[in-house]
């Protein structure tokens, strides 16, 4: 029972902090992934927008799904949602609470990716350099439309021969970057204000229902863990009984076949007990072969009744 | 009781230091964010001021709000503010104390950002380069340019590689001038903040110290009480779950015995113990049925009275019922002297 108590304490004290820890790790991983990723704009008119926006939005979707997968509570919530009613009523408020807490944690890493991408600016420069108005920038004003499209598409590539020392390229790049950073900071500001208001104003609405939902969602999680732990413990005991029974039946079979004359008192009783009558190489081989070819049935009712 | 004493000490000693730690981490994070952020002045007349002042003021606001969001006490404060009075009076002084202490901690990271930004100088250079006094630092009468042209030229001061107004005013001169002003502002800001903090700390004991001690005590109390309540509910949930699962398995094995009409076999004590440990489930089909039943037909959240443990840790005598349909009501045995 002591062991169970220790395990209970571990489960409780750590379930929220485990989820927060995973959320934080994913956020750090998303920043690291972005910095390691070698962004390489194709600098071609049709491909730029697809590449730029793709890099901005596809990894966040992946990170969101990872956040859902790595969170143990999503399975618990799905289980609670889909189970038949049985003897226990289902409380939608609990399911809603669990769902919102899972989604909030899973949204952190994608949002961080998007904000870092916007503050960095490369994605937006790549995606929207082709949509700039060439009249605003001196170097692109007196060029044919087809050429202007090509030139604008090459703006993100600093090392291209046409663009290497082009001041207009730098102007376009700076302009787009400024907008990208402004957008990034604005999104961050809006999200933080929303989080702040949500935290401050939540106690004003249905606080009692929230406390109940939180308690029962925690309860469901603990109950599932205890059930799994009980099943593990049960299967360990079951296996123990099953194997003991197997060894005893092998011992009986060997006694029947070998007609060993009982030797008196030369061997230590304790050791003989541990060896369970299997004392020769061919006996062990026979036991192993039987274990592989004829596993015992999953039924220890007779073993426990003996 | 030992366990709870340890927990009390932990909560008391670490709540303040935990928040101080978060505050320090955020201050470091704010300097790190600033150095990682790639400042990119647009070098266009109208955009410069918006960008420069935006970078100077928006991130501190974000950091300030983040300081509140990360502080668990904000929801506690809101809860205490909005709760119905019930049988416990509300003290606005306690709420004010909680808010002030949170606000003070949340102000540190924004102050660090603003100081670092001013001392670095890029923001002010970007925002105010069009307001450089050309008459005193350069030669305004040298080139006959319209006001708009001058503004456009001056706006390019932060972008050295495209600056084309060397005759109007030398780039280094303008940048040095702006940077000097920015750093002066930065140091004045740091001095002001530090003086304010010093005054607040040293003069506070002169004003209503007794009321302050009272507010501080009760705000700690509310925090500890809430944590303890959460801890108690969690303990209760664990015990509840344990008993519920035990009764589930017992119910299953009684059902099985009834269904199979086993002839009662004479069992030795050892076998009885082994069977009890196996919760009455001794073969594959029974286990499968138990697992299926656990999913299809979860047991109700209603424990049978005979099976409840007599001494369940420390809360056996006074567990308040959590399900309204429990027929046996037990009242809590605590008497609060608050």
Largest interface, Cβ cutoff 8 Å: A-B, 57 and 65 residues
What profile does the largest beta sheet of chain B have?
none
Count of discrete alpha- or pi-helical segments spanning 4 or more residues of chain B: 12
Query: End-to-end distance of chain B, in Å?
Result: 21 Å
Report on the biggest sheet of chain A. none
Count of individual beta strands of chain A: 0
Mean pLDDT of chain B: 81
SSE sequence of chain A, one letter per element:
HHHHHHHHHHH
Classify the secondary structure makeup of chain B into a structural class. Answer: mainly alpha
User: How many individual domains of chain A?
Assistant: 2
Net shape of chain B: elongated
Radius of gyration of chain B: 34 Å
Strand fraction band of chain B? under 5%
Form type of chain A = elongated
Number of helical stretches of at least 4 residues of chain A: 11
Number of domains of chain B: 2
User: Which stretches of chain B are poorly predicted, pLDDT < 50 over at least 5 residues?
Assistant: 310-338
What this model shows, in words?
The complex is a heterodimer of chains A (306) and B (338). Chain A has 306 residues and is mainly α. Chain A has 2 domains: 204 residues, no CATH class; 40 residues. Chain A is 74% helix and 0% strand. Chain A contains 11 helices and no strands. In chain A, helix 2 packs antiparallel against helix 4, helix 4 runs antiparallel to helix 7 and helix 4 crosses helix 8. Chain A is elongated. The model of chain A has no long low-confidence stretch (mean pLDDT 84). Chain B is mostly helical. Chain B has 2 domains: 207 residues, no CATH class; 48 residues. In chain B, 67% of the residues lie in helices and 0% in strands. Chain B has 12 helices and no strands. In chain B, helix 3 runs antiparallel to helix 4. Chains A and B meet through helix 7, helix 8 and helix 11 of A and helix 2, helix 3, helix 10, helix 11 and helix 12 of B. Chain A: It is found in: Membrane. Chain A: It comes from Pachyramphus minor. Chain A: It is a multi-pass membrane protein.
């Amino acid at each position: 029972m002591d062991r169970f108590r220790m395990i209970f304490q571990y489960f409780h004290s750590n379930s929220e902090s485990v989820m927060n820890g995973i959320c934080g790790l994913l956020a750090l991983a998303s920043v690291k992934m972005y910095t390691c990723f070698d962004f390489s704009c194709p600098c071609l008119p049709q491909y730029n927008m697809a590449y730029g926006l793709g890099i901005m939005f596809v990894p966040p979707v992946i990170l969101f799904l990872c956040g859902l997968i790595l969170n143990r509570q999503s399975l618990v919530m799905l289980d609670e949602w889909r189970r038949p009613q049985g003897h226990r009523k289902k409380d939608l408020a609990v399911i809603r609470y669990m769902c919102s807490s899972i989604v909030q944690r899973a949204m952190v890493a994608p949002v961080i990716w998007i904000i870092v991408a916007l503050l960095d600016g490369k994605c937006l420069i790549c995606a929207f350099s082709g949509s700039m108005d060439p009249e605003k920038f001196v170097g692109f004003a007196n060029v044919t439309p087809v050429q202007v499209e090509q030139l604008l598409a090459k703006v993100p590539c600093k090392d291209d021969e046409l663009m290497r020392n082009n001041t207009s390229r730098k102007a376009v790049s700076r302009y787009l970057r400024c907008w990208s950073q402004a957008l990034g900071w604005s999104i961050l500001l809006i999200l933080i204000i929303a989080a702040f208001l949500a935290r401050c104003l939540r106690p004003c609405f249905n606080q009692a229902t929230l406390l109940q939902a939180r308690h029962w969602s925690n309860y469901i999680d603990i109950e599932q863990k205890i059930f799994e732990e009980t099943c593990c413990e049960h299967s360990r005991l079951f296996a123990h009984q099953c194997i003991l029974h197997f060894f005893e039946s092998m011992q009986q079979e060997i006694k029947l076949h070998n007609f060993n004359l009982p030797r008196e008192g030369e061997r230590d009783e304790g050791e003989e007990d541990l060896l369970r009558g299997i004392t020769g190489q061919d006996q062990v081989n026979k036991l192993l072969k039987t274990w592989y070819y004829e596993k015992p049935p999953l039924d220890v009712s007779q073993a426990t009744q003996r | 009781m030992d366990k709870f004493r340890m927990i009390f000490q932990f909560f008391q000693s670490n709540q303040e230091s935990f928040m101080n730690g978060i505050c320090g981490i955020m201050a470091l994070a704010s300097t790190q964010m600033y150095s990682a952020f790639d400042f990119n002045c647009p070098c266009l007349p109208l955009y410069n001021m918006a960008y420069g002042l935006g970078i100077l003021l928006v991130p501190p606001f974000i950091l300030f709000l983040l300081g509140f969001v990360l502080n668990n006490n904000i929801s506690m404060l809101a809860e205490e503010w909005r709760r119905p009075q019930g049988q416990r009076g509300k003290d606005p002084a306690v709420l004010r104390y909680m808010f002030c202490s949170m606000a003070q901690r949340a102000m540190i990271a924004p102050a660090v950002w603003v100081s670092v930004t001013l001392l670095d100088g890029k923001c002010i250079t970007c925002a105010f380069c069009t307001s450089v006094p050309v008459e005193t630092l350069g030669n305004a009468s040298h080139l006959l340019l319209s006001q708009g042209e001058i503004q456009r030229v001056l706006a390019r001061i932060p972008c050295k590689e495209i600056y084309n107004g060397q005759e109007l005013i030398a780039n280094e001169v303008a940048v040095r001038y702006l940077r000097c002003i920015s750093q002066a502002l930065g140091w004045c800001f740091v001095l002001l903040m530090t003086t304010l903090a010093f005054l607040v700390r040293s003069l506070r004991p002169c004003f209503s110290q007794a009321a302050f001690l009272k507010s501080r005590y009760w705000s700690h109390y509310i925090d500890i009480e809430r944590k303890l309540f959460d801890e108690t509910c969690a303990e209760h949930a664990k015990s509840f779950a344990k008993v519920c699962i035990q009764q589930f398995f017992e119910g299953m094995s009684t059902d099985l015995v009834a269904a199979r009409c086993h002839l009662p076999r004479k069992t030795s004590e050892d076998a009885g113990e082994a069977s009890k440990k196996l919760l009455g489930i001794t073969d594959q089909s029974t286990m499968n049925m138990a697992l299926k039943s656990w999913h299809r037909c979860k047991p109700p959240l209603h424990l049978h009275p005979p099976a409840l443990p007599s001494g369940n840790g420390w809360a056996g005598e006074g567990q308040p019922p959590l399900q309204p349909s429990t027929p046996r009501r037990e009242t809590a045995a605590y008497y609060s002297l608050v």
